[in-house]
Amino acid sequence: MFTIDTSTAFGARIAKQLADEQVLWLTTVGKSGTPAPNPVWFHWNGRELLVFSQPAKAKLHNIEARPRVSVHFNATFTGGDVGVLSGSAVVDPSGPTEEEKTVYDAKYAEGLESLSMTPADFHADYSVLIRITPDKLRGF
């Protein structure tokens, strides 16, 4: 099972970013072999990252064909605070649990409001759940 060593400064920073950051970059690989990074909203539940997508997006096709992905946070302006998680992604046809939805909606309440969307609007539009299980962490 993947764990983050929060006793180190690096691990503590990554744990804080997973809890506090609003956006990370999800990189899938297209059929041409080209990496395809996309900024996404996410929730870290301690085991996996939850990402919602609109249906029929390229990232979903990429994950179905090539489930290895990476995610990374924005670095500082000078290239510091790099953190990259890699692992396996799966499109979950059963969708989120009510608890997962509630936590996600609370995290993005301000973001949804800025888009003039309710949580129900968001989940109707972004109806596909991606679950990412990390197995490696690197960075500095």
UniProtKB/TrEMBL annotation:
<dbReference type="InterPro" id="IPR052019">
    <property type="entry name" value="F420H2_bilvrd_red/Heme_oxyg"/>
</dbReference>
<dbReference type="InterPro" id="IPR011576">
    <property type="entry name" value="Pyridox_Oxase_N"/>
</dbReference>
<dbReference type="InterPro" id="IPR012349">
    <property type="entry name" value="Split_barrel_FMN-bd"/>
</dbReference>
<protein>
    <recommendedName>
        <fullName>Pyridoxamine 5'-phosphate oxidase N-terminal domain-containing protein</fullName>
    </recommendedName>
</protein>
<dbReference type="Pfam" id="PF01243">
    <property type="entry name" value="PNPOx_N"/>
</dbReference>
<dbReference type="InterPro" id="IPR019966">
    <property type="entry name" value="F420-dep_enz_PPOX_Rv3369"/>
</dbReference>
<keyword id="KW-0560">Oxidoreductase</keyword>
<feature type="domain" description="Pyridoxamine 5'-phosphate oxidase N-terminal">
    <location>
        <begin position="13"/>
        <end position="137"/>
    </location>
</feature>
